[in-house]
Design goal:
This protein is α+β, with helices and mostly antiparallel strands. It contains 12 helices and 38 strands. Helix content is 19%, strand content 36%. Helix 3 packs across helix 12 and helix 6 crosses helix 7.
């Protein structure tokens, strides 16, 4: 099919339409740079005016964060590694302990990892089979470039850094022997495996595989005999799985017989690998792959299955999602017996792993009002015990409600309300949602919003269609030609909040990141009379041209093929934020934060949205805040403070 003409965007005064008057922002770098410089000057002026207030919020966020967070311990032969103890003011670093319940001894602080004064952030930890060595991944100043740092755990308190490797597009790391690890990168969509010896140079391993998307992962079995690769094919968007024996010459064989669009590692047995998969028809299964012959068998089948951890004995701890992202656990025995487990309500799964010594499961959960708790699940007793938990809790209560959308659909809503709220008056409210790609907003402790709660604000989470809160059908009801339902649900929740006197139009701010930012902006332009402010981080705004600005085949299933299919284009035009801006109409005060180096969502989306809002209403309040050296997922403490100050500034004036 030939490419369609670009869609209509802004209505001219006096009637008629024009075809994307903002296309110059895509092709003229010099003019775009000049415009962005002008916008940056305006944003800096606003920030400078309220510098003290923003800094006060920033300090409170830091205090709240450090008293509530620590990382999942990764166990290797009675050695446990974590990246934060969550107790001290300077808590970031790698810690090593002999039991998962202990904080352990500091191996290295984040300040020791800084390059040229940059802020170093420790991301992930991978230890060698006997935990003699460990690799950690580090980002600097929010850059999407990732550094691999090799540590000698026998030199705690000394110079433990053995090697530093900077990568542009690191995917995963896997140790294949006590003194060798692999890491994966891409070059022009071709997967590359790098082999690193502790005391030698890095080498590239040549493999013959098709071109893949960036979700390329490598994993080794505990006995180091097998290596598994998973990647999304650029040809059809499906997930492919390959197995090879761990030997000098890797020979990967594809595991065939199933169509996947999602896979999560579950565990290893003596003969093969367990993984939880989501198939093309949205079914979710726990599968076992026999590495010897690549035969696949189904162990468990349930559309609400989220993941599993399976120990070497073949015992599986399953987690299934309930409404609003809440979870429940089940125990699946190696002989097929299934046991329901007693599970606290209102919590979500943050991380989990199998303890290599006891073969029990270590599970980290989170609640709306309390951050991380580390639990141990004993497979033999089928019981959970608390190993440690964060002391700090948010001074909020959470309520569950159901809102009727325009077509009669019941939409779940979670409210986080300050403990001292009496209900006698409308208070500032931050409404957020996601509703895309079958991803729901799970219970999580919004510690970074502590200043917002302390200043009398509340948070509402709209679990709109397009997520997975109510199963695969809930996702289907909010994707492709049904995507408009996500926005209708969101707007109905905003209306309900005002009708129930929780808040009012002039005290309601909508906020979201990535597609959550798209949802926030789309609702703000479709129903500008419902919101006082709108804040978005790295949103997708030009849905008509996302295929040009971002070449991601996996998005076509979610949005439709808007470049080549007229029906998909017309359906997207109903909700695409950029294409619903009308001339001479007042819109909510808008702040968009954008990562300068975002490789997932082009920064052009944010620039075009701000420019279009200014064209439609030159007197409107709009700010574009560009995060230098930042990517798609990075949102620093200053930006978190800026978001809250802007919301307070608008909803309290």
């Amino acid at each position: 099919m030939t490419e369609l003409n670009l869609p209509r965007i802004l209505s001219k005064q006096g009637g008629g339409y024009v075809n994307d008057p903002l296309e110059w922002m895509e092709v003229n770098e010099a003019d775009l740079r000049t415009w962005k410089t002008e916008e940056k000057t305006k944003t800096i002026a606003f920030i400078s005016k309220y510098k003290t207030e923003i800094q006060d919020i920033e300090q409170e966020i830091r205090r709240s964060f450090h008293s509530s967070f620590w990382e999942m311990p990764i166990g290797q032969n009675s050695i446990y590694l974590t990246r934060s103890n969550g107790e001290e003011a300077k808590c970031w670093g790698v810690y090593c302990s002999s039991t998962p319940s202990d904080i352990g001894q500091l191996v290295i602080e984040d300040t020791e990892l800084a390059l040229n004064g940059s802020l170093a952030r420790i991301r992930d930890i991978y230890s060698s089979p006997t935990a003699r060595y460990a690799t950690i991944t580090v980002t600097h100043d929010g850059s999407e470039a990732m550094e691999i740092v090799l540590l000698d755990l026998n030199k705690i308190g000394g110079d433990c850094i053995l090697k530093r490797i900077m990568t542009d597009n690191l995917s995963t790391i896997a140790w294949v022997s006590e003194d060798q690890f692999f890491y994966t990168t891409f070059h022009e969509c071709d997967p590359i495996i790098h082999s690193v010896y502790v005391d030698d140079e890095t080498q590239i391993i040549n493999i013959s595989l098709p071109s893949f998307d960036a979700n390329f992962a490598i994993e080794t079995s505990p006995d180091l005999r097998w290596i598994k690769l998973t990647a999304y094919s650029l040809e059809d968007g499906t997930l492919r799985v390959f197995i090879s024996e761990n030997q000098n010459e890797l020979k990967f064989k594809e595991v065939e017989g199933f169509d996947l669009n999602e896979s999560r590692p579950s565990g290893w047995s003596t003969t093969g690998h367990w993984l939880v998969v989501k198939s093309q028809n949205n079914g979710r299964k726990l599968l076992h792959i026999n590495c010897e012959n690549q035969e696949v068998s189904t162990q468990y089948d349930d559309e609400y299955l989220v993941g599993s951890q399976t120990n070497a004995r073949g015992q599986s701890l399953l987690v299934l999602r309930k409404q609003q992202g809440d979870i429940l656990f089940k125990h699946l025995n190696y002989d097929g017996r299934l046991f329901d487990l007693s599970t606290e309500s209102g919590q979500s799964l943050q991380d989990w792993t199998i303890d290599k010594t006891s073969q029990n499961a270590l599970v980290m959960t989170e609640k709306w009002h309390q951050s991380t708790r580390l639990l141990e699940y004993d497979f033999s007793k089928r019981t959970f015990s608390v190993l440690r938990e964060a002391a700090r809790k948010l001074s909020v209560r959470h309520e569950f409600h159901e809102v009727i959308s325009d077509d009669g659909t019941v939409v779940p809503v979670t409210l986080l309300i300050p403990d001292d709220y009496s209900g006698s008056k409308a208070i500032p409210c931050m409404l957020q949602g996601y509703g895309g790609f079958g991803l729901g907003l799970r219970p999580m402790c919004l510690t970074w919003l502590t200043p917002w709660f302390q200043n009398g604000g509340m948070v509402a989470i709209a679990h709109v269609r397009g997520g997975d809160e109510r199963g695969a059908d809930w996702h289907d009801a909010g994707k492709a030609n049904n995507k408009i339902n996500s926005f209708i649900d969101f707007i109905c929740v905003a209306k309900w909040l005002a009708e129930k006197k929780y808040t009012s139009r002039d005290r309601l701010c909508t906020w979201g990141a990535s597609f959550g930012g798209t949802l926030a902006l789309g609702a703000a332009v479709l129903a500008p009379d419902r919101f006082a402010a709108c804040i978005a981080h790295n949103p997708i705004t030009d849905i008509a041209k996302f295929g040009k600005l971002n070449s991601r085949n996996s998005w076509i299933d979610e949005f439709g093929d808007t470049l080549n299919n007229e029906t998909a284009l017309h359906n997207a035009a109903k909700w695409s934020p950029l294409h619903n801006i009308k001339m001479n109409l007042s819109y909510p005060d808008t702040l968009i934060l954008v990562g300068e180096n975002d490789q997932r969502v082009s920064p052009i989306h944010s620039a075009k949205m701000i420019k279009a809002l200014k064209i439609a209403n030159p007197e409107g309040v709009t700010f574009l805040h560009e995060l230098e050296n930042s990517g798609h997922y990075e949102l620093g403490v200053f930006e978190q403070a800026l978001i809250q100050h802007f919301a307070m500034y608008v909803t309290r004036r």
